[in-house]
Automatic annotation (TrEMBL):
One example GO MF annotation: sequence-specific DNA binding
Domain of life: Bacteria
Any one Pfam family match given in the protein's UniProt record, by short name: AraC_binding
Start and end residues of each HTH araC/xylS-type domain: 197-295
Entry keyword annotation includes Transcription: yes
Protein name: AraC-type DNA-binding protein
Acyltransferase listed as a keyword: no
PROSITE patterns linked: HTH_ARAC_FAMILY_2
Keywords (A to Z) from UniProt: DNA-binding, Transcription, Transcription regulation
Family annotation (Gene3D superfamilies): Homeodomain-like
Organism of origin: Dyadobacter koreensis
InterPro entries: AraC-bd, Homeodomain-like_sf, HTH-like, HTH_AraC, Tscrpt_reg_AraC-type_HTH
Range of residues in the leader sequence: none
Length: 296
């Protein structure tokens, strides 16, 4: 059986964006016509999370080898590691879709969001909810607001910030719906999911003093190779990239504080000197810390 990784850029091509997102790693589509030719029929994983709702017609999808017949107001949530398959759609099928990558979540400060906002993406819960009309109307209203913010992100001086706020509101509302609609499959998350959650918690606690994958692997009693592969499977990014993302998010936050000079920030993030911090920062952004600060 062939399996592949579907990229977010590929999804944007499907929706006619030519591979270019208004805001990197995020997209929203309303009432898009489902065309089977745009989707591979084999199982695939993705480098993005997808949330979609059927707005007319019906679809049949496979998630982790289980088939779901999804009618109007059917709601699907699928994380990157889930094995997904497009099986069929009626001729009148339309769908509204929110998709986002790990990079987008890191960019809006995922470490500051409550972990329960994402619990319903684990294997503990079914990925399909059948919403009633009131809940479906609310979800479509929120998606519409996200679409407006998405399209206006580059035209407003705080467009991306407003998009992030709207997105976080959407996540909180979906988390609230999960209390009603998500059905538990198991009382336990998978061993791999639990390992990744423990790893992320450790990184958030120790990233200022520890950036080596080996150290985290030792604390979790696994090899660095296994940790890296598991994190990649569950999140779409390897362990080192996840650590660097958290460090970069904090570096950007600190660079927003004019009271701190770059040498102080390098020291706060446990770089041996300002030069090493500068090389690390430029490798991830293409800018020196000073150039980045000048753009703020």
């Amino acid at each position: 059986m062939k399996q592949s990784i579907h990229k977010h850029e590929d999804l944007l091509q499907v929706f006619g964006h030519g591979g270019q997102a208004v805001t990197g790693g995020f997209s929203v589509e309303l009432n898009s016509v489902v065309r089977k030719k745009d989707f591979a029929s084999e199982h695939f994983r993705s480098d993005y999370i997808i949330i979609c709702m059927i707005t007319s017609g019906n679809m049949t999808m496979g998630i982790n080898f289980k088939k779901y017949n999804v009618p109007v107001n059917g709601f699907i949530l699928a994380p990157p590691n889930a094995l997904k398959q497009f099986i069929q759609a009626s001729e009148d099928a339309t769908v509204s879709v929110i998709s986002f990558t790990g990079d987008f979540l890191n960019g809006i400060g995922i470490s500051n969001l409550k972990t329960e906002l994402f619990e319903y993406f684990s294997t503990r819960f079914l990925p399909f909810w059948q919403l009633d009309q009131q809940a479906a109307d609310m979800v479509l209203k929120l998606m519409g607001e996200l679409k407006t913010r998405y399209l206006g992100a580059d035209d407003h001086p705080y467009g991306k910030e407003l998009l992030n706020i709207a997105f976080q509101t959407f996540l909180y509302e979906i988390a609230a719906l999960s209390r009603i609609y998500s059905e538990p499959v198991s009382n336990y998350v998978s061993r791999k999911e639990n390992l990744v959650m423990e790893f992320i918690q450790l990184v958030q606690k120790h990233f200022r003093t520890q950036r080596m994958v080996n150290a985290y692997a030792g604390h979790l009693s696994v090899t660095a190779k296994y940790l890296t592969e598991t994190v990649k499977e569950i999140t779409g990014k390897n362990a080192g990239e996840m650590i660097d993302d958290v460090v970069m998010l904090e570096a950007k936050y600190l660079l927003n504080d004019p009271a701190l000079n770059i040498s102080q920030i390098a020291d706060m993030l446990n770089f041996n000197d300002q030069s090493l911090f500068g090389k690390f920062f430029k490798r991830h952004t293409g800018l020196s810390p000073r150039d980045y600060r000048n753009l703020l």
